[in-house]
Amino acid sequence: VIPTPSSYPAPRSAKTALTAAMTTCISVNGTLGDEKSATISVLDRGFLYGDSVYEVLRTYGGEPFALKEHLDRLERSAELLEIALPISRDTLVEEIRACMAAAGNVESYVRIIITRGGGPISLDPALATDPNRVIIVTPLKTLDAEVYETGVKVCLVNAGRSAEGQLPAGAKSGNYLTNLLALRVAKQAGAHEALLVDAHGRICEGSSSNVFIVVRGAKAEGETQGLTIRTPPLEVGILEGITRHKVLELAQTLGYPVEEVDLGPDDLRAAQEVFLTSTIREVLAVTQVDETTIGDGRPGPVAQALRRAFVA
Question: What pLDDT shows up at residue 168?
């Protein structure tokens, strides 16, 4: 049984440097502050090497969405990187809720970061001590409504990576330089998002999203319009997106067959539809891949149906 948000414990107490509610709150190891008062050592390995794990979630109706799933993934990422979590999950939830309460937003963006800690300047993880935890809560900023009506352009970027080169694959770590540089290339090309292509020519994921395509095939009994949804498998070395997982479930509920298979650039260009999923975007149609128009250049019915189902 997955606990409901209300079943998580309310904060019992929190060290605080605040005197009034604010729209941005930052908690560092349980102490609440803001952009000016929140500090962490420059010798922290998260700053020096990106040696950290993190999660980003959002609220709906003021409640953190899929909190359990996000914390499950945070723990898996920490285990993969062999970073010791400094506090229990219940205490972490208390600190998240205390930070959200101090921020006082109607809806919030929440970022949770666990670093390996500080120590001598050395790549050796064994020298790190005292993992640090940072929680950042800011007002939620979503995409303009018109973006969902027009769709977006994406740009394919050769990342030169493969599943074999990811150590470890599937961890949501703070080492995001590849994604950052790929997104810069996409922005320079006038695109909304970068899609990473690995050393084998396989589409992996977006810089901060998962990618899906819709293809037309023979219609089988119980299927919807003979359309099949495809997305890269986890074995490619992608992050197992929380929104991705929920959209896969919704697709099957709506009667769309789903296949997790390798995809190449030509698969995207020939697709009936392409769409992205992420915590902030939810489900967002792609209408252009590089210079290729997808479908009729408008968000397709599958992406629209999945977005409606997800929002519902």
Answer: 73
The per-residue pLDDT for range 22-41, each reduced to its tens digit, is 699 999 999 999 999 999 99
Question: Rounded distance, CA 224 to CA 206, Å?
Answer: 27
What CA–CA distance (Å, rounded) separates 235 from 170?
9
Cβ neighbours of residue 120 under 8 Å, at least 6 residues apart? 127
What is the C-alpha end-to-end distance of the chain, expressed in Å? 21
Cα three-residue angle 234-240-243, rounded to 5 degrees = 130
Global confidence as pTM:
0.89
CA angle 149, 289, 297 (to 5 degrees): 40
- Residue 101 CB-density burial (10 A; 0-12 exposed, 13-18 middle, 19+ buried): middle
Q: How far is CA 312 from CA 67, 256, 282, 295, in A?
A: 18, 18, 12, 26
